[in-house]
Write a structure and sequence with these properties.
Elements (H helix, E strand, L loop, with lengths): L9 H21 L14 H12 L5 H11 L6 H13 L3 E8 L7 E5 L3 E7 L1 E3 L4 E9 L1 E9 L2 E3 L17 E5 L6 H10 L8 H13 L4
Antiparallel strand pairs: 1-5, 2-3, 2-6, 4-5, 6-7, 6-8
Protein name: Tyrosine specific protein phosphatases domain-containing protein
GO molecular function, one term: phosphoprotein phosphatase activity
InterPro entries: AMPK1_CBM, Dual-sp_phosphatase_cat-dom, Ig-like_fold, Ig_E-set, Prot-tyrosine_phosphatase-like, Starch-Glucan_Phosphatase, Tyr_Pase_dom
C-alpha cells in the first residue's frame, strides 16, 4: 500500500493520502471492515493512514483519534499532512508560484532541500549573471514549507528569509507560507478550521469525503 509514498515525507503523504484511503475504504467495504495496514516500521505512514481513516470515515475527531491510536501503539503520524489533505479534498488543491533567492556571486553551487521534496533530496538554483544571485521558482500547494540552502555543500539558512525557532535538536530552518489566490471567505474559514489545533468534520463534510473517495481514480 505504501510502496509509492516516500517515508518521513509529510508533503508526499499529504498528496497521496486520498489515493491510499480510497483503496482502504473500498477494501474495508468488501471484506467486513477488517484490513491490515502496514509500512516499513509501522511508525509513520501506516499510523497516518489509520488515523486519517478514523477521522474521515469512522467519525473520530482528529485529536481524539490520535489519542486512541497512541494508546494502542506509540507512533508518529504526521498530523499536519492529514489536516492539509482533508482541507485539499474539501476546498480543492491549488498551487501558487514562489521565488527563493540566494544573493552571493562567489559560490559555485546553491541548492535547496526540504520544501516539497523532503530532506533527502536537493534542487539546484539557477544563477542570474545580471542580478548576481541564485534563484529558484517553484509551484507549491497552499501550506507552510521548511527548507534549507546548501551552498557549496554547506547547509545554511538565509538570514533575509523567515526562520523557524530552534526545534528539539536545536536546528533552525527557513520557511515559507504559501497562500492561494482567489480564496473565498468561506473556503478560507474552512481551511483554517481544518488545519487548526483541534479539527473536526461535520456530517456533511464526511459525506463529501466519502463520495470523493468512492469516485477517486489513480492519476
Amino acid at each position: 500500500m505504501f510502496n509509492y509514498t516516500r517515508d518521513f515525507d509529510a508533503f508526499d503523504l499529504r498528496l497521496r493520502l486520498p489515493a491510499v484511503i480510497s483503496k482502504l475504504y473500498k477494501l474495508a467495504s468488501h471484506n467486513g471492515g477488517i484490513t491490515y495496514i502496514h509500512c516499513t516500521a509501522g511508525l509513520g505512514r501506516a499510523p497516518a493512514v489509520a488515523l486519517a481513516y478514523m477521522f474521515w470515515i469512522l467519525g473520530y475527531n482528529l485529536n481524539e483519534g490520535h489519542q486512541l491510536l497512541q494508546s494502542k501503539r506509540p507512533s508518529f503520524p504526521k498530523l499536519e499532512a492529514i489536516k492539509l489533505a482533508t482541507a485539499d479534498i474539501l476546498t480543492g488543491l491549488s498551487k501558487n508560484c514562489i521565488t527563493l533567492k540566494w544573493k552571493n556571486s562567489s559560490c559555485s553551487s546553491v541548492e535547496i532541500s526540504g520544501l516539497d521534496i523532503g530532506w533527502g533530496q536537493k534542487i539546484p538554483l539557477a544563477y542570474d549573471e545580471e542580478k548576481k544571485a541564485w534563484f529558484l521558482e517553484r509551484e507549491l500547494p497552499e501550506g507552510r514549507y521548511e527548507y534549507k540552502y546548501v551552498v557549496d555543500g554547506n547547509w545554511v539558512c538565509n538570514e533575509h528569509e523567515m526562520k523557524t525557532k530552534p526545534n528539539a535538536d536545536g536546528h533552525v530552518n527557513n520557511y515559507i507560507q504559501v497562500a492561494r489566490d482567489g480564496t473565498s471567505d468561506e473556503e478560507k474559514a474552512m481551511r483554517e478550521r481544518l488545519t487548526g489545533p483541534d479539527p473536526d468534520l461535520t456530517k456533511e463534510e464526511r459525506l463529501m469525503i466519502k463520495e470523493y473517495l468512492e469516485q477517486y481514480t489513480e492519476q
